Amino acid sequence: MLFLLRMLAMGVHFIFAGILGLLLGICRPFNPDNSRICARLYSLPALWLLRLQLKTDVRPLLDHQRSCVIVANHQSNYDLYVLGRVVPRRTVSIGKKSLKWLPFFGQLYWLAGNVLLDRGNALSAKRAMLTTTDTLKHQDTSIWVFPEGTRNLGGELLPFKKGAFQMAIAAGVPIIPVCVSSYVKHIRLNRWNSGSIMIRALPAIATAGLSQADLPRLIETCRTQMQQCIAAMDQQLTTA
After folding, report:
1. Residue 92: in which H helix or E strand, if any?
2. In a 3-state reduction of DSSP, which class is residue 224?
């Protein structure tokens, strides 16, 4: 019963947050800080409704004062509410073009200045990546990417796609990994207190002076650091 009530409340919240975010986007379309505000609109009430305890240590992310590429593990649709709590200023994300047609959310996602990628069209995807690289270089805006490309359902990290790392090298900006504990298999939304989730940002990985030849090593370094961090957080939550 509690789960059903929560899902009903979350449905109402999703629509209400979508309307507010859409109004924000209409008032100041494509402002790169819209994403942070909209992320909070979705996240803060949702964490309260779901009774999820969030423990964050993201100083490397929030203290960073210039453009960067942020990479995070992607577990489920709840990432919108979990990670929305820590999106920094002037940060946009890369999402599938099909998101644009999702009622309320899709339109505000577009108006918030996020990048919509048509993965089925190689030429269109390449143009979007070039535009995003230019944004990193010249517009004091960071890009948030899920390099796995799809949800891992709380299991081991999937292989990382190259796009985020190619952009970081081309723009000469650092990569900041953001790690979330494996919450999907452990939260219990039919209980009053649904569980605890940890989020940790790792120190920035510099890309200055790297070339595309360094791409495999860069990807492996980032993925290994993130996998080790996630395992450590999972262990800490288990023994807490």
Report:
1. strand 91-96
2. helix
**Chain segment 112-157, per-residue pLDDT in tens:** 888 887 766 666 666 667 677 777 877 889 999 999 988 898 788 9
Looking at the chain, the whole-number percentage of residues with pLDDT higher than 90 is: 67
Task: Provide the 8-state DSSP code for 178.
Answer: E
The pLDDT score that the predictor gives to residue 95 is 79
- Helices 122-138 and 163-171: crossing angle, nearest 10°? 40
| Phi and psi at residue 42, to the nearest 5° | -75, -45
Q: If DSSP codes are grouped into helix, strand and coil, which group holds residue 57? A: strand
* The dihedral formed by the CA atoms of 38, 18, 194 and 2, expressed in degrees to the nearest 10: 160
| CA distances in angstroms from 9 to 22, 40, 45, 46, 51, listed in the order given | 20, 17, 10, 9, 12
* Residue in 51, 220, 171, 124 with CA at minimum distance from that of residue 115: 124
Domains of the chain, each with CATH number or no CATH: 2-239 (3.40.1130)
The per-residue pLDDT for 151 is: 87
Tokens linked to 207:
């890309």
Dihedral angle sign, alpha carbons of residues 226, 229, 234, 235? positive
Tell me what pLDDT residue 99 has: 78
CA atoms within 13 A on the CB side of 113: 26
Contacts of 79 (CB under 8 A, 6+ apart): 72, 146, 180
Nearest Cα neighbor of 145 from 81, 226, 37, 69 is: 69
What predicted TM-score, i.e. pTM, was given to this entire model? 0.92
